[in-house]
């Protein structure tokens, strides 16, 4: 068995619990303060993002999956067209969602926080799971359009932090509108519940695309992290599942859960036989949903 150094050991087993400790500390502090929740999302998630960026550059798990200079410009274009950079896009979502939650009046408004949170997560994941799965597995004209909307996120042959925000603009609109904004309006969650959800959702979105050997152990049976999401990006369609964004619960219930501790996919991206355009042909990729065949 190959021996790994102390820095990689700390990343492998220490980064995940330490990140959760920071999140719990930050959320506890902000929730106790009588202040606007909106800056909290940015202040809690930014240190995690910057820490992961440094680790990914210094201690990548697979150098062949790392961000390259050739991919940087296409990444920026995709992100820009999907409403800004990783931070700005997620921050805008956080601001809108928290603002809506302060005005909405739905059945969850009077619930205690401990009840709002699991309902919020499970409802979001249920909607997101089925949209995401349909984008991959639905057949016929509708399925083809949904896949062509989603394909931009799967075309790169690597997996790195910046990819979390790389998507077709229509993909971003569909997920945000149907899985996040609409349920917040309907259910009337409190701003505090929405803040917790957005912070945890952003954290797992970041680490799920993390090109580092971060291990979560038993937590994989509750949350989506890099060990699960790498398989979602596998070029082998038989193992490219794990459709959850934050929770792995619905994947386990619906039979799409793939967890192989200590292993990784041999290749990432799309099936070479699918004849998809090159990832760097940005406007060709963006035009895919509007083609007839």
Number of alpha- plus pi-helical segments: 11
Give the helices and strands as they follow along the chain: HHHHHHHHHHH
Structural class comes to: mainly alpha
Whole-angstrom Rg: 19 Å
Summarize the structure.
The chain is mostly helical. The protein has helices at 6-32, 38-58, 69-81, 86-103, 113-137, 140-150, 169-187, 191-208, 226-232, 249-253, 282-286. The model is unreliable at 85-90 (pLDDT under 50).
Question: What does this protein structure show overall?
Answer:
It is a single chain. With 293 residues, the protein is mainly alpha-helical. It has one domain (6-290). It is built from eleven helices and no strands. Helix 2 packs antiparallel against helix 4 (86-103) and helix 5 packs antiparallel against helix 7. Residues 85-90 have low confidence and may be disordered.
């Amino acid at each position: 068995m190959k021996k790994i150094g102390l820095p990689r050991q700390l990343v492998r087993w220490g980064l995940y619990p330490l990140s959760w400790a920071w999140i719990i500390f930050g959320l506890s502090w902000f929730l106790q303060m009588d202040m606007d929740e909106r800056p909290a999302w940015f202040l809690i998630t930014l240190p995690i993002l910057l820490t992961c960026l440094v680790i990914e550059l210094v201690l990548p798990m697979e150098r062949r999956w790392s961000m390259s200079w050739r991919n940087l410009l296409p990444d920026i274009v995709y992100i820009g067209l999907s409403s800004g950079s990783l931070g700005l896009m997620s921050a805008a979502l956080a601001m809108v969602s928290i603002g809506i939650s302060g005005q909405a009046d739905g059945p969850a408004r009077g619930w205690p926080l401990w009840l709002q949170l699991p309902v919020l997560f499970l409802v979001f994941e249920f909607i997101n799971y089925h949209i995401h799965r349909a984008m991959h597995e639905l057949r016929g004209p509708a399925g083809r359009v949904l896949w062509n909307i989603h394909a931009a996120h799967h075309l790169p042959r690597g997996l790195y932090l910046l990819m979390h925000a790389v998507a077709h603009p229509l993909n971003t609109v569909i997920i945000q509108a149907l899985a996040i904004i609409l349920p917040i309006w309907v259910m009337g969650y409190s701003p505090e519940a929405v803040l917790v959800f957005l912070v945890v959702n952003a954290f797992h979105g970041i680490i799920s695309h993390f090109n580092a050997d971060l291990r979560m152990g038993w937590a994989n049976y509750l949350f989506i992290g890099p060990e699960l999401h790498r398989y979602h990006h596998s070029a082998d369609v038989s193992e490219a599942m794990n459709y959850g964004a934050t929770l792995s619960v619905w994947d386990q219930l619906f039979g799409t859960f793939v967890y192989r501790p200590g292993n990784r996919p041999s290749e990432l991206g799309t099936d070479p036989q699918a004849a998809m355009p090159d990832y760097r042909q940005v406007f060709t990729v963006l035009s895919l949903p509007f083609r007839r065949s």
